[in-house]
Amino acid sequence: MSIRLTDIAKHYGRAGRALEPVSLEIAEGELVGLLGPSGSGKTTLLRIIAGLEAPDRAPAGRILFGDRDVTDVHVRDRRIGFVFQHYALFRHMTVFDNVAFGLTVLPRRERPSSGEIRARVHRLLEMVQLEHFASRYPAQLSGGQQQRVSLARALALRPDVLLLDEPFGALDAKVRQELRRWLRQLHDELGFTSLFVTHDQEEALEVSDRVAVMSQGRIEQIDTPDALYRTPANRFVFEFLGDVNHLEGEVRNGVLTCGEAHLAVALPDGPEELLLRPHEVRLAQAPTPEARLPVTVTAISPVGAEVRVEIAADWLVEPWLATLRHADYERLELRRGQRLFVIPRRWHRFSADATQQRQPAAA
Fold it and tell me: What is the pTM of this model?
């Protein structure tokens, strides 16, 4: 079931506008992430799609599920599955009964037979890998297992659309990582249309077919994870998707100068700010003719396949972050307090009209 939103807006009286007029299309079977900081409007948009809140009447926005206009349809008639951050399971019911609950309370003419309900619930518990926990109660499960029960319950009614609001927000990092991989696999197996809200960039980029980055009630950009990271539409998207180092200075005759630091750049004279990702920063024991950016190592943190190095300098407003391969870390014999030089591999800048310019730095 596809989803199409046209000019959906929302404001809350004196609290102001939560959503600017938003238009969005989600293809059938697509998994789209809504990503943004707190207050960006992502949960408001999700609740409007679900029918838990009504959009403003002006402009006259529309919500279509396939060819069906559900703008004024009650939440119970939208065929929505909803998974919340907090599992909201019935504590006095077993796992089986929690998953079956939505089916057992359907009107008699719509309710499957008891045999069909048992078969559907057991099939769902197999899918979420909890078939051996059917007789347990929520208090006897881990947080990750409870969230799987919550997802199975949402899928039991065979919804046209599955909506998830920070589904892994209450879980620890390792469990979150396991569950988001599992959600992606389950989505690929069942092919349902899904929209989920998160403020975790890594989560959104790993799970989604496309990601809509939101800010101040607007969709700044919607694209594939790779396109978002490589070709952000504006500075907000660039800075929100990962760590960023800032280099501010004055350009004169093709050289950007900031205190004792200087970098050759092909830019017009005047004040300038460049942005660099941590992996676009190389550390060296000596400067180059094009780049003299002296720094001091202030912290070292080996993380998985890379080493994260925090560096500081008098010419920096705030410390920078560099990510190195372990081989480079060992070659440089890095230690706190060590004096080194930054050699930028690439930098980015955004003009006032949000146009991005990227340039490899001479190194």
Answer: 0.81
